[in-house]
């Protein structure tokens, strides 16, 4: 029973980490899948297969090399020097993505609740600060609550769309984009999201003793992501092309479900944004706490302040500019993950860290040697 619970926690955390602002609001799905018309169904299935395969592989490797952070994992993939550079780049991307998450929260408050944009930002920041005090357990708990509700609502969305005129439009939706661009898009989308998810999935795998739970959680998580992609694409295809005008396209679809369901749906979108924002801040904070000569308690508030400044540019503008660029750069990371063997070479443990962890290991070795060195008479 404990193994099954852990499996579900891993699956829900995997889904919750991927299903962020762009996904939950529908912007990501429109940009990477739905706008490619009849190609979208096949590319979504392809993307789901990649999430199952590469997400599971990443967690298994992270557990076997005892990687405490995504920097340890990148050092394993690229080597010590290149891995450090990649990790710093990943940190910059995570800060940009978290700014997008924060902007998505503000967009929900402004567009659908009639409340000030800044209110959504401040509420997200305050709630995140309180939850971050609980560490990784807080992330597991909030995803275990929100993700099942999102999966249930996705199922309701599919059932409701079945009776809408044009429900079969997703099969033959016209597009002006080429098939090459349509098949590159899921590669970019999957690469970007897996590159970002490592900030949470790597330490999660490190603290999971049962490898079978990781495998089952990765499979369930990837399949769940695929289902939610299909459900959102199915619903939005029936509303094309008019749905392209909305900042929160999934929120506009929820309107036809009635005011009560709409409010529940908007609340869940906000909670998904909130949980992904917390996870991203947590992942970057863990790395920075080992590198910056400031109190650990100040790292997370400083990161959230930076995200608050960038979030003033707006949600859809940030999403449209940065996501494709980040996805292209994360393709390199995915290529290295594909090439990496599932099991590290014999004798290879945790990669040497340049921060506090590496120094601690060196002190331990020095202190043991005098005790075990034979004494000459």
Q: Keywords for this structure?
A:
377 residues, Membrane protein YkvI, transmembrane, transmembrane helix, 15 helices, 76% helix, Hydantoin permease, mainly alpha, globular
Structure description:
This protein is mainly α. The protein has one domain (2-372): Hydantoin permease, CATH 1.10.4160. Helix content is 76%, strand content 0%. It is built from 15 helices and no strands. It has helices at residues 2-18, 21-25, 27-32, 40-64, 70-78, 80-111, 117-132, 136-161, 179-206, 211-237, 249-254, 259-289, 296-310, 315-339, 356-372. The longest helix is centred in the first third of the chain and has 32 residues, at 80-111. The chain is globular, with a radius of gyration of 21 Å. It starts with a helix and ends in a 5-residue tail after the last helix. The chain crosses the membrane at residues 12-30, 36-54, 85-109, 115-132, 144-163, 183-205, 217-236, 260-282, 294-315, 321-338. InterPro entries: YkvI-like (IPR038728). It comes from Paenibacillus rhizoplanae. Keywords: Membrane, Transmembrane, Transmembrane helix. Residues 346-377 are annotated as: Disordered.
């Amino acid at each position: 029973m404990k193994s099954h619970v852990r499996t579900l926690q891993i699956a829900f955390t995997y889904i919750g980490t991927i299903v962020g602002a762009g996904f939950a609001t529908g912007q990501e799905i429109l940009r990477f899948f739905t706008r490619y018309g009849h190609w979208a169904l096949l590319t979504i299935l392809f993307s789901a297969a990649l999430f199952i395969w590469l997400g599971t592989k990443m967690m298994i490797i992270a557990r076997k090399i005892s990687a405490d952070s995504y920097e340890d994992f990148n050092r394993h993939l690229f080597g010590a020097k290149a891995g450090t550079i990649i990790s710093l780049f990943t940190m910059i991307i995570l800060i940009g993505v978290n700014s997008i998450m924060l902007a998505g929260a503000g967009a929900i408050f402004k567009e659908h609740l009639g409340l000030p944009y800044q209110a959504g930002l401040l509420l997200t920041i305050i709630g995140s600060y309180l939850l971050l005090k609980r560490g990784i357990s807080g992330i597991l708990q909030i995803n275990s609550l929100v993700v099942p509700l999102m999966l249930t609502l996705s199922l309701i969305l599919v059932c409701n769309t079945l009776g809408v005129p044009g429900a079969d439009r997703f099969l033959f939706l016209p597009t002006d984009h080429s098939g090459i661009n349509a098949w590159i898009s899921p590669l970019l989308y999957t690469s970007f999201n897996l590159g970002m998810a490592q900030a949470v999935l790597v330490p999660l795998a490190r603290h999971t003793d049962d490898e079978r739970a990781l495998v089952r959680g990765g499979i369930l998580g990837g399949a769940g992501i695929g289902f939610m992609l299909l459900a959102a694409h199915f619903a939005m295809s029936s509303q094309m092309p008019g749905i392209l005008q909305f900042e929160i396209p999934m929120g506009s679809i929820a309107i036809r479900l009635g005011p009560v369901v709409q409010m529940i749906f908007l609340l869940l979108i906000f909670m998904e944004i909130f949980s992904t924002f917390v996870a991203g801040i947590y992942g970057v904070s863990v790395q920075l706490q080992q590198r910056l000569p400031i109190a650990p308690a100040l790292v997370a508030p400083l990161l959230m302040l930076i995200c608050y400044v960038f979030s003033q540019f707006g949600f859809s503008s940030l999403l449209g500019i940065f996501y494709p660029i980040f996805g292209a750069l994360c393709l390199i990371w995915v290529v290295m993950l594909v090439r990496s063997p599932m099991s590290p070479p014999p004798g290879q443990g945790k990669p040497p860290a340049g921060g506090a962890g590496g120094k601690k290991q060196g002190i331990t070795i020095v202190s043991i040697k005098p005790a075990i060195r034979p004494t000459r008479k």
